[in-house]
Design goal:
CATH architecture of the largest domain: 3-Layer(aba) Sandwich
Shape: globular
Structural class: alpha/beta
Number of domains: 3
Helix content: 40-55%
Number of helices: 17
CATH superfamily of the largest domain: Vaccinia Virus protein VP39
Largest sheet: 8 strands, mixed
CATH class of the largest domain: Alpha Beta
């Protein structure tokens, strides 16, 4: 590879780094304008998408420091696309970021990118980046000492919230959020177990570790097309923490749901938990509900790939029970409620920059409304499992404490509570989640 004109090979195409930086700058600009990174990457040309995603994730994880450095070094605010290119390059040059290219290559290619997207700004980009390299050690130390956003790579309100919620673990949580999450699989219970699938992966040249009966953690992420049996529905991608939902709702032994139990998955898209329920209990009479008809199609596609036919789907707002409920109570309800997604920021590093402090209160009110609307639909002796992929207490323990005060017929059952995305001994860290089981008194 020629260092003066490096390329990135994806899907058989060799793409100049300058082109990938242009696409990444567009993605960064989209996030700074309030759009999700997923949406921005969908607009990227297919050949450039894998490389752009890798660089965009990198930029998101170090954007707090990069924005602070850009503000310090740039005498004037550049146009949005140039500004995004500078932030991208500075994030990749950040001392702790372990960027995939040497410093001089990144600077040269960022300048080449500037010549392509804004020729008059090329010398400005060159000057800012080269000054950053000259002053990097002193400048970064100064920014980190003065600005929590540069030290922890998260918005100040997010840092403050974690300090209040987790006074002992907050710094560790912030550091963990900048690490890539492991790729975790769920082996279809009807097609074998984790140990057998790990052996099958080894035959295919893929290293992995079994965690429990059906969870598998890969040594390195791979495209799903490389997974044996994926297209045939023998395995799915699902994080370790998300795999708690179905067993918690179904119960075991004397606590297990009855045969043919009526179950509601109230916010079902994209369908991973719906599918897990049916893999473990094909006899369920299950309604998968979601307010987004487009996202509900993903549930149907997931169930079709896994050859699961025990669910009915419906597009409706779960809070508006008069519009969709047939009047027959449910034995169990899974409410995987809309939330801040603060627990999955390793997988979606743009979330920290898209959320606002006011969102947490708004989301908590939505969660409360969902809980109060769905609780009357649970039969006496039945259960509701409440879940959020959040590490904020207002969306977890605080929400359930308030619910129990409002509902005298509810009792807290055995559940994990807050799961933090921190490695425990040799077990890989799952995503940040909260689980509560609410049992309705007979």
């Amino acid at each position: 590879m020629n260092a003066s004109s490096p390329t990135s090979t994806t899907h058989g195409h060799s793409l100049p780094l300058s082109r990938l930086l242009a696409h990444t700058a567009d993605a960064v600009a989209a996030v700074r304008a309030g759009r999700s990174l997923t949406e921005a990457l969908a607009a990227c040309p297919a050949a450039a998408r894998p490389g752009t995603q890798a660089l965009s994730f990198h930029a998101m994880r170090w954007m707090g420091g990069a924005e602070a450095a850009c503000e310090r070094l740039a005498p004037r605010t550049p146009p949005p696309r140039v500004h995004a290119l500078l932030i991208t390059a500075l994030a990749l040059l950040w001392p702790d970021a372990a960027a995939p290219y040497p410093d001089h290559t990144l600077v040269d290619q960022a300048v080449a990118c500037a010549h392509q997207i804004a020729p008059k700004s090329a010398s400005f980009v060159n000057a800012v980046l080269r000054r950053f390299l000259r002053e990097r050690a002193t400048l970064v130390a100064d920014l980190q000492a003065q600005l929590p956003v540069a030290r922890h790579q998260h918005p100040r309100w997010w840092i403050d919230q974690l300090q209040r919620d987790w006074p002992r673990q907050w710094a560790e949580l912030l550091a963990a959020a900048n690490q890539a999450a492991p790729m975790v699989l769920r082996v279809h219970a009807g097609h074998g177990d984790a140990a057998r699938y790990v052996a099958e992966l080894a035959t295919a040249g893929l290293g992995a570790k079994a965690i429990g009966p059906h969870a598998v953690v890969l040594d390195q992420p791979v495209p799903v097309q490389q997974l044996p049996g994926f297209d045939e529905g023998r395995v799915s991608v699902q994080d370790l923490s998300a795999q708690h939902a179905a067993p918690l709702l179904l119960g075991t032994g004397a606590d297990a749901l009855p045969v043919g139990a009526r179950v509601l998955d109230a916010c079902a898209a994209p369908g991973g938990k719906t599918a897990h329920l049916l893999e473990l209990r094909p006899d369920l009479v299950l309604l998968a509900l979601d307010s987004d008809a487009v996202r509900l199609q993903r549930v149907e596609q997931t169930l079709a790939r896994l050859h699961l036919h025990g669910a009915r789907t419906a597009a409706a707002d779960a809070r508006d029970t008069a519009a969709w409920w047939d009047g027959q109570p449910f034995d169990a309800i899974l409410l995987d409620a809309p939330c801040s997604a603060s627990g999955i920021v390793r997988r979606h590093p743009d979330v920290r920059w898209l959320r606002r402090a006011s969102d947490i209160g708004d989301l908590a009110r939505t969660q409360r409304a969902l809980l109060d609307a769905l609780w009357p639909l649970v039969r006496p002796g039945g259960r509701l499992v409440y879940a959020t992929c959040s590490v904020f207490r207002a969306e977890g323990a605080g929400q359930i404490s308030a619910f129990l005060q409002r509902h005298a017929d509810a009792r807290a059952g055995q559940a994990p509570g807050h799961l933090l995305p921190l490695t425990d001994n040799s077990t890989p860290a799952g995503d940040g989640f909260f689980y509560a089981r609410l049992d309705k008194l007979s």
